[in-house]
Amino acid sequence: MGAATLKIWSVMTCRAPVMPKPLFEYGLEDWLHLRPLTHCLKTIRYRGINRWYLARSARTGDVACVARDLRGRKVLATVAFDDPEAIAWQWQLVRRYVPDALYLIADNSASESKSAAIGEIARAHAIAYVRLPANPWRWSRSHGLALNWIWQNVIRPGEPEAFGFIDDDIFPTAPDDPFAPLATQDFFGLVRTVGPRWFLWAGLCVFRFERVKHAPLDFGQDWFAGLDTGGGNWRVLYRHADPAQLRQLDTRLVPYREGIDTADGALQWCGSWLHEIGFTRDRLLDAEKRRVVAAMLAPHLADSPDRI
Fold first, then answer.
1. Tens digits of pLDDT across the chain (308 residues)
2. Rounded distance, CA 308 to CA 301, Å?
3. How many angstroms separate the CA atoms of 55 and 263, rounded?
4. DSSP string of 34-45, one letter each residue
5. Cα(151)–Cα(160) distance, integer angstroms
6. Residue 62 CB partners (closer than 8 Å, separation 6+)
7. Beta strands in the chain (DSSP E)
């Protein structure tokens, strides 16, 4: 072996945490295609980008001030992405139905105009707001990186009593306290299982800060182990708990309108929270689903004391 190969092999064998999964889980075909090596190198790259991104400053917002406001509170942080309408609905409904939670907008929008609209909503209604650094990734990897930035730069120094993450297209439709299960467990949400591993879906998950504050949390993906956003916490958090012993968030999928199969267009109920599951690559479908969701939320928004 050359010096470079020996160095890489040393990283793979002596620094096991770099590996996305144990070497014994790779089969013969994986080794023939050098997947342990390529997975190791890609994981090192992803973690390097993660460290670089976490060190970057917010584009807008007083991060230190927002962090101070979290102390001792229960916090729900939403990752906004190019959807001011959803944010306008969500903050009203969270304030109405989860009144004890401090609602925080972490703006990960790619569009300058959409971000400006979201920022205006925050300013007009005194909502905690930061605009995240420009994200080098897209889709799920972008979301995971955003969650890690919020954790490292806002939540961890802020030291809340408890915190949670919600997608920007999920809406409470009845009084709810998602933090209540933390009285008897360290985290709560929708459990997703992939083979021998499991993780909490990043779209609605909450954590007791005191129990996780010293853990090297990673809310990103672990694609090589089959885990989506939030799955990066398997190694440091979830593998130490038995999901069968945890209270979990109930969920069900329903078609967004009568006469179609769920697979052709779904909405998701997570307890009393309505998840739109958008955007797709079908603009007509997205537009029709948005109209359906708007009609479903209209009675709740009409009675909101914070109605826009």
1. 333 333 333 333 334 345 567 887 888 887 888 888 887 888 888 888 889 999 999 999 999 999 999 999 999 999 999 999 999 999 999 999 999 999 999 999 999 999 999 999 999 999 999 999 999 877 788 999 999 999 999 999 999 999 999 999 999 999 999 999 999 999 999 999 998 999 999 999 999 999 999 999 999 988 777 889 999 999 899 999 999 999 999 999 999 999 888 988 899 999 999 999 977 778 888 899 999 999 999 999 997 666 65
2. 9
3. 41
4. THHHHHHHHHHH
5. 11
6. none
7. 74-80, 101-107, 128-131, 162-167, 170-172, 187-194, 197-208, 251-255, 266-270, 273-275
Angstrom distance (rounded) from CA 304 to CA 258: 28
Q: Please give the structure tokens belonging to residue 102.
A: 């401090």
| DSSP assignment letter at 73 | S
Judge contact between 55 and 149, C-beta under 8 A: no
CATH fold of 63-245: Spore Coat Polysaccharide Biosynthesis Protein SpsA; Chain A (3.90.550)
Give the three-state DSSP class for 119. helix
